[in-house]
Structure formats: C-alpha cells, structure tokens
Amino acid sequence: MVHNNVLPDDLSNQKAFFIDMDGVINKGNHLIPGAAEFVEKLKAGNYKFLFITNNSYFTPEELRDRLADLGIVVEPEHFYTSAMATARFLKYQRKSFSAYVIGGKGLKKELEAVGVTLTNNKPDYVIVGETEEYDYGKIIEATFLIEEGAKFIATNPDITGPTPRGPVPACGALVAPIEKVTGVKAYFLGKPNPAMMYWARKRLKVHTMNSFMIGDRMDTDIVGGLEAGMTCCLVLSGVTTLEIMNKYPYQPDYIFNSIADIDPDNIISRWDMKKG
Q1: pLDDT-above-90 percentage for the chain
Q2: Structure confidence at residue 270 as a pLDDT band (50, 70, 90)
C-alpha cells in the first residue's frame, strides 16, 4: 500500500548525484579545475554518487584507475556504464539469453555477469558496443544474424568519442552500416535513454526527486535526465555553449560554468523549487 504519495522505491531522501565524465570531470587526460574538490565535497557530505558514462569499453576497475591517474580516488562501485545498463535491462527482460557481441571487455564482462551466453549460433540478440576489434567479417555476421531473427541492441548512440588526438568513431557509428543493410534500427540503452538513468538510480536506491544529473551535453545528459525526472545541471566546460543550449526545446534546471560552481549542500531539486 502507498501512503502519503510515497512510491515503493522511495528508499532514500538523500541527495544523489549522477555525473558525466568527459567534459564535466575531465577533458581527455586533463582534469577540469574544481572537479577533484567537488568529489571531495560529495565524500565529506556522505552523498551518494555515480559517474555515469556511455563508454562501454572500460570496466569500472579500469575507469577507477584512469580517474586515479588524474587525481580523483574513488571505488569501482562509483561508476555506471552503458554496458552495465544494457546487461541490467536484458536481465530484466529475460531470465536467460544468448548474444553475438561486438564490443570490448567492459561489455562482455557485464553480459557474462548476468548469465548471457556469447555465441554466433542462433543468438537471441546482436549487441554492439565500443571495440577495437571491428571488421568487415563481424559486420557481415551481425547482418546475417539480424536477418535471421536476432534482436538488435547497442550500448549507446554516440557517433564519436573523444581521444587526446581527436574524435574517433563510437558505438553509433559502428552500428550504422548494420542498420543500413538490415533496415533494423538498434535499440540503444545508454544516454539519452532514461532507462540508463533508471537503472543507475536503482543501483543507488534513491528517488528521482532527489537525483541530480550533471552533464555537458544537451542531447544525452540533459534530455536523458529530464525524461527520467531528475534535476539537470548543464556545465559549460564541455561541448555545449549557451548558444547551442538555446536551440533545444527543453532546458536544464541549472546552468554552471563548470562543476566547480556546484555546491552539493545548497543545490535544491526542481521538485523543491516548485514547493517554494
């Protein structure tokens, strides 16, 4: 029974922060000024938080090590990837399934953790994520399997990903030739799909009303957070400028120059703003 409009998943009234990485915490191999101090404020205030990334290639342990190299020390459980969202979604859909996977170890590890069988023998799904092992043979195999009835899943729709040398093809670019040949559109589980926000929030056992999404992209972080009911904070330290932001039909709840300007103790949710 529900009392006083409290939903069954209202497991915590504590603020929780969901933080994009590139463009918010770092730019390539450089930490954005104030990012480390913000994370220390979260730790000091005992706030729940996750770094939420569309990159499906790295494991949480690898992401921990990469962030530690930049000067921020957190545990692997503070990371939530599109690979994790994909695995969680599929486990929610089916008790057991098989998949032909084109992706890195981060994706394969998460799928194996929920019991997926990796195979090209009549798989239930073709699943694509970021990978360094992508060739014409894999494209052909994925195409045949989808035409033979496999469902098409991909970790995230990003066309490019950042590297120190410049942008490189990301998952959205890898699925494009398979989509064009088969005529089947992939179902993407990463941002901006609010399903990723939902599963990340469930991981922290917090309610939407107390959840803050911090990101630098209007078309992934902000729209995904808004559609999931989170309070959204756009930072201008990444790809989005005020001019770009104003072109979108939806807008963030807050705009900050960088994460250094966010005070986790005093920021209030959109729901509390409405009460005021």
Answers
A1: 82
A2: confident
What local confidence, expressed as pLDDT, does residue 161 receive?
A: 80
Core vs surface per residue 203-225: b (16+ CB within 10 A) or e: bbebbbbbbbbbbbbbebbbbbb
CB 100, CB 120: distance < 8 Å: yes
Residue 104: phi and psi, rounded to 5, are: -85, 180
Checking DSSP bridges between strand 231-235 and strand 254-256, what pairing results, if any? parallel
The pTM of the full predicted model, rounded to 2 decimals, is 0.90
Average pLDDT over residues 164-185: 91
Q: Strands, DSSP E only, in the chain?
A: 16-19, 26-27, 30-31, 48-53, 79-81, 98-102, 117-118, 125-128, 151-154, 160-161, 168-169, 187-188, 211-215, 231-235, 254-256
Backbone phi, then psi, for 66, in 5-degree steps?
-65, -40
Q: How many CB atoms lie within 10 A of CB 254?
A: 16
Which residues, 6 or more positions from 233, have their beta carbon under 8 angstroms from its beta carbon? 212, 213, 214, 215, 252, 253, 254, 255, 256, 262, 267
Task: Give catalytic residues, as residue numbers.
Answer: 20, 22
Domains and CATH numbers, the chain: 16-54+191-275 (3.40.50.1000), 95-187 (3.40.50.1000)
Contact (Cβ atoms closer than 8 angstroms) between residue 191 and residue 156? yes
- Beta strand extents in 98-158 (DSSP E only): 98-102, 117-118, 125-128, 151-154
CA dihedral in degrees (48, 54, 58, 61; nearest 10)?
Answer: 0
Residue with tokens 């545990």: 75
